[in-house]
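Review box. Two proteins, two foldings.
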Amino acid sequence: MTKIIIVDENDNEIGLKERGTLNPEDIYRVSALWITNSNGEVLLAQRNFNKKHDSGKWGPAVAGTVDDGETYDSNIIKEAEEELGLKNINFKKGIKKERFSNKHKYFGQWYFLIIDRLASEFIIQKEEVEKVQWFSKDEFYNLYLKNPSIFLDSIKKWFDEF
């Protein structure tokens, strides 16, 4: 089974745990890639309905938990290729590792990419992603205000930053 990196409150590695065996006090690492296009739209991904956590919820185009032997950077490169078929991407590192606390405790490293491609042109990994869709920022915001429960809890941070 895959082991994920457990960190302290300063994001220093303190151990490894098998995925699925975390305690509520464990803090881990997550990377997320926010994709926009030249029209100012944001690409959101809907998590597969069979996912154990947050199934069917909308979130960043790509996201993943940092596994043993990975860095935030290597994780987002791997996840972008696996989840959307993106190779040789030139992303911009965004918000520094920031601790989020809701149901889970983790540090999240955000990355940004501007790409002009139809949603149907992404090669999605069906085990992870139900679908991807472009939203104007107004559509995204209004949908969030109307129905926040269809989004990952961390989505609010996106609106706080942009």
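Next protein.
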Amino acid sequence: MTATLITIPFSHYCEKARWALDRCGVRYEEDGHLPLFHYIANRRARAGRTVPVVRDGDTLLTDSSDIVAWADAKKPGTLLPTGAARAEALALEDDFDRQLGPATRRWAYFHLLPRTDLDHIITRGAPRWEQIALKLTRPIAVAALKRGLKIDRAGADRSRAKIDETYARVADILSDGRRYLTGDRFTIADLTFASLSSPILVPREHPFGLPMPDEFSPEARDRIEAWRATPAGAFGLRIYADHRTP
């Protein structure tokens, strides 16, 4: 049986789950939807309000970290190391999920939601009827997202500070010359950092096809280029280049 992965295609938490499934060789079909419209698919799957969701027979997974663990169990050791490195990798995954992910999402939404000229990117992979519905209801949908995720200038500035703080900590971890966050091999810690950084690093290898830096406003473009130039940003881009294969 082929699993179903319910997503908002451009969501970085969905990219985390998608990447883990790909890395572990799990067969799945992606069921992509636009924000808010995904509630319908979730209800059919008897899931909650968030994505990603994996449905595989009687198995229902509604959290990206649970999806990672489930995928790794099918090919043990692919993403979750053993021994002390396992605890370290899981701690970093949890930290990035709680701190980095919300910050990069809010910052990116703040700069992208006003840009109707980029809707063709945001709507990619969603059903045609949802794309049409978004055009008709865009102001309402955008207002709901801004309210729900506290997307405003103050929130974007707080998120930028949170990103800078996380990137400084990652740079400190990497300062001893290691190639990966927990040592000498690729783990869920590296995958989580790279995927949750994707909204602000916009790597070319991202399977969804994110907007490139020159498509952002000058203010946002300068900040993206600055993040890309940091040790942590360069690390995230390398992880995509080296490990994100179709």
